[in-house]
UniProtKB/TrEMBL annotation:
This is Membrane protein. Pfam families: DUF6113 (PF19608). It comes from Streptomyces viridochromogenes. Keywords: Membrane, Transmembrane, Transmembrane helix. The lineage of its organism: Bacteria, Bacillati, Actinomycetota, Actinomycetes, Kitasatosporales. The chain crosses the membrane at residues 20-38, 44-63, 70-89, 101-123.
Amino acid sequence: MSSMLAQPLKLKRPSVLRVLAYLGLLVLGAVVGVAGALVQPAWFPGGLLLALAAEAGLLLGAARATGGRAGAVASAGGWMITVILLTASRPEGDFVFGTGAASYLFLLGGMAVAVICATLAPVRQPGGDGVRLGK
């Protein structure tokens, strides 16, 4: 009798609709990142909390909508790429993030929220008769 762990992994190709959904979540994560970068310095404690709550809502909603962690990871990837690109200064000297505690709390808090939400996201359960994960 062979173990399920010893069997080769058979992966199906993702459907076009699933790939488009993940790309849409990546773009939505980028939009939330830009909005959070603009809102968080406007009202210091409230704007920061609103930006982080919006990110957490997006990540958990994306994970629930896709039925797995990949939705949260796609949204978090869009958020992180956008926020990191916004931290870079331009040749003219313009930048979005000022120096201060609020900007660092937004960057580090947003990354912590991304890790927490991707960890807490539901995981797909394999189906079939031989699976006993429901115990």
